[in-house]
Amino acid sequence: MFHRKMMENVHLAPDADEDDLYSGYNDYNPTFDTEDLENDVAFQQAARTSHGRRPPGTARIPGTPTSRPLATGFGSKATLTSSMGRPVTGAIQDGVARPMTAVRAAGYTRAAMRGSPFDPLGQGRGPVPPLEAKNADSAEEKIRQLEKKVNELVEESCIANSCGDLKLALEKAREAGRKERVLVRQREQINSPENLDLTYSVLLNLACQYAANGMYAEALNSYQVIVKNKLFTSGGRLKVNMGNIYLKQRNYSKAIKFYRMALDQIPSVHKEMRIKIMENIGVAFIKTGQYIDAISSFELIMSMSPNLKTGFNLILCYFAIGNCEQMKKAFQKLIAVPCEVNYDDKYISPNDDPHTNLLIEAIKNDSLGQMERERKSMAEDYIMTAAKLIAPVIETSFAVGYDWCVEAVKTSQYVELANDLEINKATTYLRQQDFKQALETLKMFEQKDSNVKSAAATNLSFLYYLENELAQAANYADLAVISDRYNPAALTNKGNTIFAKGDYEKAAEFYKEALGNDSSCTEALYNLGLTYKKLNRIDEALDCFLKLHAILRNSAQVLHQIANIYEIMGDPNQAIEWLLQLISVVPTDPHVLSKLGKLYDNEGDKSQAFHYYCESYRYFPSNIEVIEWLGAYYIETQFCEKAIEYFERAALILPTQEKWHLMVASCYRRSGLRFLVHLCTDMGMKEVQEYTTKLKKVEKLKEIREQRIKSGRDGSARSRREGNAISDSGGTKGERLNARLKAFPETSEPYESSICKEIDVSYIDPLGPQAERPKTAARKRAEEDDFADEELGEDMLPE
Q1: Phi/psi at 176 (nearest 5 deg)?
Q2: Where is the composition biased (Acidic residues) (predicted)?
Q3: Rounded distance, CA 259 to CA 273, Å?
């Protein structure tokens, strides 16, 4: 029975409507017919009475027949009730039916008006109207374009600064500043609000670029503009930058003042920035020698956020005031700072998986890995430097101080540095020339792990090599190589011991292996170049030293080797260029200066050779080769009096060699009348005045002769020009010859004769003929000297 009742309520759709999926959508309910509302008497009466104007009722439970007023799209309120008692939720706007619910269906709403077509995509509305074209001439558009240009200039300035082009960065920043000021004026004209962020960024970038270019006054002015403007809420922080500029200018009091002002304006939530400012304050106090105030800043930082740099600075301050106990406490605080780098354990492969090993090798050398290595190296440098600084002063002896530092490090996270401190202890013994203690300290590492043993054996090998005990040096070099085959220092020492034995080929192999393990091992590269020189492989030696020069730009030894190789190769010009670079590094090296003089002399440049030989003599006046060259140069240039000075110094240096005394005598002989005056003066003879007068007369005649020669040469050139003119005008051959003869000076000597010969031949000796001169004691001694010189001959004079 129950089943039959259920089936009576089930109505099957007719077969004709099976394919009509949208049936029922066009059915019209007369309740929604609003066209005849004006003729509906009951509706109009309800609208005019108070019943139609009563406020809407409260919400009721859905499904009840009570309706509620609805605000239509036209602003009026009407109560429209559907056949089910449900209020209508939509109205007509501009001929388009508003959806019945909050979310409109995809076109499947019942049409608001009869005959409305089905248009879910709104194609019947027509094409979309075109966008409004921008008015490029409007003030707002010009301001927007100018703002865009200013931002681009600021970005270009920052990029140029990051690329290292500071000049271009400053130019861009200045241009951005100019355009920003134009932008402000344009905004004022149209009463547009200011873009404070843009102004702030332009001024800040300009100040930074001024500071980067060393224009500190301009940078400070730009920062002042920002700081004094109250509209820039974070401008007070820039006083840190102003403090940095004053610190660079060494105006430490003002730097401290601005740092403190910035510290007052930075809230406590910015802990890192406050700590950095306090570090700057401490450094400024160190610069002014106020170590107590610096200690206060550094102690506060170490209590809040300890770091390696501050801990090291704290040790320096206590060292400066000589407080040994506080030095120990500060060192313990330093080694307690966490390194936060577990470099060794992180990159150890847990298994032999090749994929994992490849991944570990890849990340081991990435930027993060490099940063970790740098941080670890920095921590080790701070601790090692601090230990070497305080060890000699914190205890009665440096050995006891080193022992205290070693024990302190062993109890810290930097336990691996203890062995390095022990090796540094041995190095300190070496500096003190205490080789016995150094050897004993290093021999303690023979039973330790391979890395430490290799380092100790390397130092032992070096010590024995210095003492010329090559057998012991070779033994410890072998031990160092066996302990750590990848230790470049050990391989270099091994090569040195073989080099000392003369086996250059084998030594070169060890140097190459050291470079294979560490391409920056400059000692191995230098020794390899020396080995190639010994093997006469000059090109390879030059290649080694040029590579080394790229690493060590100002190494005097490398520059000297390169110059020497070019000299061996027969290229004196290149050798001179490298020696000139060398004297820019060591300008007072007499051997380099004499070498330059020799090269210039070989090239025939006597003036440059004379200059560098004189400089060499000035710094080292005991070099016999330089003295001999300078004496010969003065003799060659007819300044025998100057040559006497150098030969007398040579006689003082080598008094047992008669050569220099004879050269002094020969110079006196060549001096002639000047020597006679000098001799008479030394002997106190009355003829001094007479010979002096005659000497002055000769010198005056010499000057006249030189002037005549000069005027004769000028006349010769003029006569040749006149002769050519006569030839061109058709003069006779005799006239031309007569003109040429007149151009020659009136002398019996050749035209290019020396000055001395001209004086001797062209003029009568003012002292008179030799036979008619009185036989004075001075003259007699001079004749004896002349005889001695004739016996010596000219071979004794240096060429």
Answers
A1: -60, -40
A2: 784-799
A3: 11
